[in-house]
Structures are given as C-alpha cells and as structure tokens.
Amino acid sequence: MKHRRFNLPGLAVFAALLLLWEVSSHSNPNLQSYFPPPSEVMSVLFRLAFARELLGHLVDTLERFLGGYLLAAAIAVSLGVCLGYFRLAHSFFDLLIELLRPMPSVAIIPVAILLLGIGDAMMIGVTVYACAWPILINTIDGVRSIDRTLIDTGRTFGLGRMRILREIALPAAAPYIMTGLRVSLPIALILVTTSEMVVGGSGLGYFILDEERSFRTKEMFAGIAVVALLGYALNRLFVALENRMLAWHRGITAKGTP
Amino acid sequence: MKAQAPILQVENLSKSYRQAGGESTRAIENISFTVNVGEFVSLVGPSGCGKTTLLMSIAGLIAPSAGRVTVKGAAVNGPPRDLVLVFQEYNKSLFAWRTVLGNVLFGLEAKGRSPLDAEAKGRWLIGLVGLEGFERHYPWELSGGMQQRVAIARALAYEPQVLLMDEPFGSVDAMTRLELEDGLLKLWKELGTTILFVTHDIEEAIYLSDRIYVLGRRPSRVIHAVDVRLERPRNQLTTRADPDFMKLRNEIYRRTAGEARNEA
Questions:
Q1: Is B159 a domain residue?
Q2: Which of B87, B97, B140 sits opposite A153 (nearest CB)?
Q3: E strand or H helix at A14, and its extent?
Q4: What's the CATH code of the domain at B238?
Q5: What distance in Å separates residue B239's CA from the closest CA in chain A?
Q6: Would you state the pLDDT for residue B263?
Q7: B158 domain-assigned
Q8: Where are the domains of chain A?
Q9: What share of chain A is helix, strand, coil (3-state, %, to 5)?
Q10: CA–CA distance from A89 to each of A79, A82, A93, A140, B9 (Å)?
Q11: Quick check: B69 contacting A, CB < 8 Å?
C-alpha cells in the first residue's frame, strides 16, 4: 500500500472535534473557565513559546527523556542479549523479571526519591527503570528465537561467543529489539512528566501542574498540547529511523504476506 | 612425503544422544574414513541415518561420544580453523540483514582480512558463483538456488582447506540442482579445496565425487566404500549415460537396499 502523506479523514475528525470544543466552550461561560476555547489556548501557546519560559521546560523534559530512554536502551539491550543467549543466566533472573515487570513503575517514584533525592537523577532513574522492561523482555525473546543454524554458522566460521553475540545475535534480534524500543518510547515520556509533577521544579510535567494549581487553564492546556506534540514527534522520528534500519526485515515480512 | 597424509581423518567416531527417559540412542557408530588433500568425497546414506550428526561432529559443532576427528593431523575439539560447513538450510544460515556482498564479506571478516582488498575479493567470489550484479541484493530477494550460491561464496571467502557440505542442494528444484552441481565442480577445480559432501542422492554423489562412502541406517556405519573413476570434466548428459556410472549406481543401490532388507 502506498503511504499517503496526509491522512485527510483523520485530519477531518481532529478538526471537527476542535471545532466542537471551540463552539461549546464559547456557548457556555461556566465551562469556559475549565475548558478554554482551543483558539485561545493556541494564542497562549504562541505567546509562551516566544516568552521562552515554556521552551525552557520543554528542553528540561527532553533532556530527562533522552537521558533515561537512551540509558535504558543501552542497559536493557546488552543485558537482554546476554540473558537471551546464556540459558543459565536467564534461569537465575527469570522469576525476578516476572515479579517486577507487571508492577506499575510509578510506584517506585517514592523509593527513587528516598534513594536519589528530588533532582534529575531521580527522574532519569525512574525513567530508566520503567523503560527497561519492554526492551529487556523483547530482546530476550528476540535472541531466544534465533535459529540454531544461525549460531552454528558463526561457530563454523570460527567466531567466539562474544563475536557471535555482537555480530549475529544482536542484528538477528534487531526487529524484536526495535519493538521493545518503540513500546518504551511513550513510557519514557509518561515517567518523565509524572515525576516532574511529583517533585516539581522544572519540566513540562511541573509546568502543567503548576498552571492548574494557579488556575491558569489556558496555560495548562498549552503545556498539555506541547507534551502531546512532543510524543507525536518522537514517535514519528522513531518510525522513520526504524524503517531505515530494518529495511531488510520489512522486505522479508512484505514478501511473507501476499 | 607430507602431502600424502590425509587432510581429514575420522576414526571410530560414535555419537549417542540421551533421550528424555534416560535411554540413549546411537546416531552414528564406529565410523572411520579418510579424505585426502584436494579430493571430492561424498557420504551417501538414507534420510535420518545420522549424516548431519556426523558432519556436525567433524565440524566441531557437537562433541562425539567416542572416537576422534583430525584435520591436518590435529585433533578436533571445537570448530577447526581450516574447515567450514555449508548448511542445507541456506535460508536459516544466511544473514538476512546483510546484502549478498555483506554475507560474502563476513567470510573474510571471520578470517581477519583487511577491509581494503576484502571488497575486491568478495566481488570476485560473487562472480565465481555466477551472481554478478546481485551484490547489493538481500538474500530474500533471491531464489533458493541463488541463496545457496551466496552461502557457498561466503564459505569460500573463509578460504577453508576443507569444505563440508550438508545436503547443500537438498532444498532446491531439480533443474537448479544440476546447475549447482556443475558450478560446484567448476569451483572445486579452480580453487582446489578439499570437499566432503553429504547427500542422500546416489547419482549426485557419483556425479560429483572421487570417492563415496556409503552409510547404513541408524546407528550409522560405513558399509561400503567406492572409488569413482569416471572421466573429468564431467557432463550431466554423457557422464550420467556412461555404463560405468550405471554400474556404480546399481552397486551402491544394491548395498543400501540390501541393508534395508537385512534389517527387516
């Protein structure tokens, strides 16, 4: 199927909802203080963007997001490749993973505050923790599903275990790893904004909550819009990157389905 | 003279597998044979006779229960440096994330060659297996026969002195198979690599080999050894029509069929 540049029906639904919000907000003054019309939110957004206050929060959030996400990726991919490849190691950690994984990660925020204080270290820490699980699980699955013949191919060419891990297991598991990374992307954003709301100071999460407490709902919605756009942009960026890196894999899957 | 010593020696090799119930089944038993430098030797036997187990043991990928394998006089306990195995399942053995050239270059990288002359060598090998122009293609874009050629080129890039091939043409169609057989003989003549070839196809073994070892049913043993003295270069039409070819085929067939009868 050809990829369309603009999803017209989707845009129409989105525009219709904004219009409905706009109209109902104008027609009901009581509602207006909680749900200011989108047009006013937009104008506040522009004003804030040029006042550089919001921009500062955006940069802080982005930094925490990137720090946590990339650190989680590095840790979880290397650990996952090892746990997937060495059966014995996996049996040691299997139970621990199954116990910790289903726990909602925000529950460790208080623990992280005790351990790491209320600064960037804590916010990045909980982000790493939450993001690591989907990447870890998918990487382990990916490496375990590698065909024996592929590993034996590396061995007959005289490769040692570490080279097999790096040059064969890692690329062979790449489609799984990318799935894990894609799942973690919104999780990272959730954890960063949530912890910013909890410990305050700076960042979009802090900004949204702070404006709400000061009853500046237009500013609050402007902050929410920025977080939404950030999540959307990051996801688009990721998909573009994934398509480039896994071009070989897309070919195989496309061939498999008529 | 040193050159007279066999490059590959298999002595009393046995392999048993332990099953779930604690019982062990014997896959191969007391197999001995030798392969000389530059020879094309085939192992022929019925499906499921333990040919793959034998080849995996020779390649150092599994440890035998008893006996030993020596390559150039050194005992095998792990994948030997001068030997490489080509698998039947090329689609599982090729690296899907690497192009044709990338797969072939892997053989050179594994050997530790400098990247500068590696690319030229890789392209030369790709030309040698008849895949010129497909360097930038991914394996899934090629037919089965072409994929197996990539796997062979990758193995040759490693410059093995002994090439082990486990039913390499078992999953391609009959026409492609004949082409691949002739291609392999051409490579063998050009590079002088010693080849140990496993197949269940008696005619394929005769067509390719200098010598054939016939394996019996499980637990597999060598039940017969035949020298093939058919003229080279061989030809799919004239060689296969040669009366000596027929005689060899009948001889080997009778041996394997007789084996089956004795067992019944």
A1: no
A2: B87
A3: helix A8-27
A4: 3.40.50.300
A5: 34
A6: 56
A7: no
A8: 37-256
A9: 85, 0, 15
A10: 10, 8, 7, 11, 38
A11: no
Contact B140/A168, CB-based, under 8 Å?
no
Residue B175 lies in a domain: no
pLDDT digits 0-9 by tens, A119-160: 999 999 999 999 999 999 999 999 999 999 999 999 999 999
Q: Domain A37-256, what fold?
A: MetI-like fold (1.10.3720)
- Contact at CB, B140 and A152, closer than 8 angstroms: no
Question: Is the CB of A252 less than 8 angstroms away from the CB of B59?
Answer: no
Contact B79 A158 (CB under 8 A): yes
In this prediction, the residues of chain A whose per-residue pLDDT falls under 70 are 1-5, 254-258
Alpha helix ranges (H) inside B69-219: 90-93, 100-111, 115-128, 144-157, 174-191, 202-208
| Single-letter amino acid, residue A251 | G
- What amino acid occupies position B200? H
Instruction: Count how many domains chain B has.
Output: 1
Using the Cβ of B89 and the Cβ atoms of chain A, whether some distance falls under 8 Å is answered with yes
Residue B1 has pLDDT above 50, yes or no: no
* Pairwise CB contact (< 8 Å): B92 & A168: no
Distance from CA of B156 to the nearest CA of A (A): 11
Asked if B140 is an interface residue toward chain A (Cβ–Cβ < 8 A), one would say yes
Q: Which residues of B touch A158 (CB under 8 A)?
A: 79, 81, 110-111, 158
Residue span of the structural domain in which B255 resides: 2-80+198-263
Nearest to B97 among A157, A158, A248 (CB): A248
Give the pLDDT band (50/70/90) at residue B2. very low
Round to whole Å and give the CA distance between B220 and B92: 26
- Using the Cβ of B63 and the Cβ atoms of chain A, whether some distance falls under 8 Å is answered with no
What helix, strand, coil percent values describe chain B, rounded to 5? 40, 25, 35
pLDDT for res A257: 43
The pTM (predicted TM-score) of the whole model is 0.87
Tell me whether residue B188 is in a domain: no
